Give the backbone structure.
Amino acid sequence: MNTGYISYILICITIILLVSGWKDTVLRGVPSRYIAVFFIGWFSLSKAELALGQVKISGIYAGLVILLLIVLYALPRETGVIPLVVSGLMLGLFYFLASEISVTLPDLPGGSLFWLAFIIGLLVIAMYRHPLAQIGCITLCVLVGCLLQMYSHSALAGYRLGFGPMKDHWWLFSFIARIVTGMLEFTASASKSLYRQWVDARKEKE
């Protein structure tokens, strides 16, 4: 599949979910106007490039940096900024190492992009439940991983930051984290409801 196709597919699925009444499940607590600004910014920056000395930076990479700063500022009080930054940095290192291993050992079991996305998604879910915290952690993970990849491949590809499959990775990681979180929350809510019904039924019999 060509670079960028996965991100466009997931963007379409996300928009459909948001407009069909699943907003509270996908992005609970995030105002609709902020979501609209995000999509406008994403499409506006998708073809943009910036030059910083010898480094060429994609518009999406710059946009994700801005998104990260906004998310860190808007985090709920119970979510610490420093722990999230540390978690994002560690995940970024893992993302970089896993990507390099999948390139050098393509036949390794579990080396595909979808397995990597699933693992990172589960790690993020294990640390955070809030949508902003998950998105912030994943964004920092992708930014750090791409930065490390740029320096490791600079002799062959030059200093190019945020190009290639970065968009696909960010969308896939975020999508899996939010969808799995929504499924777990729905399962927990349904289980509590069934348990209460069972308790009430037992009380009525007694």
Summary: The first helix runs from residue 5 to 19. The mean pLDDT is 87. The CA atoms of residues 173 and 195 lie 33 Å apart. The chain is about 75% helix and 5% strand.
